[in-house]
Design goal:
Number of strands: 13
Number of helices: 21
Radius of gyration: 22 Å
Length: 478
């Protein structure tokens, strides 16, 4: 019998509660430098208490699914080389829970979700429908089908009961915030509120279909980015239908020659980070499973359940802070953060700590030199920036990042992690100067992108379309 998603808040909460008993937090001073941060993290990973706490949290988050799995995916960027050899096999097994975390649900159960939402048999909607999923999403599975007019489509279907599981996770995360902070100290009440808002939206595939269509139209005709057009008229709350794009997945991309990986890495950086500063909107879920190399050489981007539009004033604040960090203007950076409310205890935070904290997360795109991003650099920066065991930035870690900036910084971290998995090389600062300072592009991709932008100036986003519970009956005419 296929295993279903557990939805009982008590059952799911018990798993989290068991972690609390073994959680031990230590602090230790380390010397700061970009590559030194990775070595610092390596030393901390040698501590048995850190390994034990982290692997327990990874295991619990992986088995909970829903929101907890979404949080846990952030930990999957951890580089195994950072884990001491004596602990590596044990930790790898725990991490595999996140990487292979899709619940086992029978096709008949998934088919029932489709037919319930459409109110008609599967054959009335699709001429062909493959029973074997082609991908797993965080709250569903993706199938390939063919419409009666011959179009090939990708069909994302929610796991039955996942909506209840997500809401149970949200309640448990609020209950066990202190436990989770042993591995993820950024889980504050404001973060949970923002997560709740975003995850509630992610449960509505009709709304996601509307968003995806808007992004597909925004990037229509782009020279190296493709977003499949969704079909809101054929989508429901639990079923999302979009164009099928054939291509290589992330694991295949990782095997390509250096120059091709570098090209793809720059495209990923431009899409996930550059779009925030170009369009004031971005996809908040950079993940290897959401990227593919299409057969025509373009890079395809999938999954828009966690899509964010930011107030231009907030985007400008981030730009101003990054410029201050790039120019080593520590006092200016601290003052900006005090005025914005990022630092609410100024007496505890010095200018240098403020600067070093920002550099821990963003130095990779603020130094004017070619840099090969390795998994070790990416995971080292991430862990040192958020790990409460590191006494560096102790004051900064106690401040509250406004929730409107949470997901943009999260997207930046996850993009860094993806580039590390690809081992990409570029002068990331020269690319980022296009949006940091308005400089002309220096790469061929940048020149091509700006030529396209000149012909497709950004326009205000459309208002969301009306959501519908049921999809209209599709035509069965070939």
């Amino acid at each position: 019998m296929a295993k279903q998603v557990p939805t009982s808040r008590l059952a799911r909460g018990t798993k989290l509660g068991a972690v609390a008993a073994g959680s031990v937090i230590r602090t230790q001073r380390v010397r700061l430098s970009m590559r030194g941060r990775s070595e610092a993290v390596r030393a901390k990973m040698a501590e048995e208490s850190m390994i034990r706490t982290t692997e327990q949290v990874v295991m619990v988050l992986g088995t909970m699914k829903g929101v907890a799995m979404k949080l846990g995916q952030m930990m999957s960027v951890l580089d195994m080389d950072l884990v001491p050899e004596a602990h590596r096999e044990r930790f790898q097994k725990r991490l595999a829970v996140l990487r292979n975390a899709a619940p086992s649900v029978s096709f008949e159960s998934m088919r029932q979700v489709i037919e319930d939402d459409f109110g008609q048999p599967l054959g009335a909607i699709f001429a062909e429908f493959e029973a074997e999923p082609i991908a797993a999403a965080s709250i569903g599975q993706v199938y390939r089908g063919t419409l009666h007019d011959g179009r090939q489509v990708a069909v994302k279907v929610q796991y039955p009961g996942i909506d209840a599981a997500v809401r149970a996770d949200l309640k448990n995360l609020a209950m066990f915030r202190r436990v989770l902070q042993s591995a993820m100290p950024w889980v504050t009440p404001a973060v949970l509120d923002e997560l709740r808002l975003n995850m509630e939206s992610e449960l509505d595939y009709q709304a996601e279909a509307n968003t995806q269509l808007q992004i597909a139209e925004l990037y229509a005709g782009h020279p190296f980015i493709v977003v499949p057009r969704s079909m809101p008229e054929l989508s429901t709350t639990r079923v999302l239908v979009s164009e099928y794009v054939a291509g290589k997945g992330f694991d295949e991309i990782r095997q390509l020659p250096d120059a091709e990986r570098d090209r793809i890495g720059e495209i990923i950086y431009r899409f996930y980070v550059g779009s925030l500063f170009t369009f004031n909107e971005f996809c908040g879920d950079p993940h290897p499973g959401n990227v593919l190399l299409a057969n025509d050489g373009k890079v395809g981007f999938l999954d828009f359940g966690l899509f964010n539009r930011m107030d231009p004033e907030h985007v400008q604040f981030e730009l101003t802070c990054l410029r201050a960090a790039a120019e080593d203007r520590a006092e200016d950076l601290r003052e900006l953060m005090i005025q914005r409310g990022v630092i609410d205890s100024p007496e505890e935070i010095g200018a240098e700590e403020c600067l070093e904290y920002v550099l821990a997360a963003s130095e990779w795109c603020l130094i004017d030199e070619d840099l090969t991003i390795t998994p070790e650099l990416a995971s080292g920066a991430f862990l040192l920036a958020v790990d409460p065991r590191a006494s560096e930035f102790a004051g900064m870690k106690q401040q509250n990042l406004p929730p409107e900036h949470l997901f943009s910084r999260r997207a930046d971290f996850l993009t860094f992690g993806m580039l590390g998995q690809l081992g990409c090389t570029a002068n990331w600062h020269q690319i980022s100067r296009e949006w940091l300072y308005g400089d002309p592009p220096v790469t061929e991709l940048g020149k091509t992108h700006h030529a396209w932008l000149a012909e497709h100036p950004p326009v205000a986003p459309k208002k969301p379309r009306t959501r519908a519970k049921k999809a209209p009956k599709p035509s069965t005419d070939a």
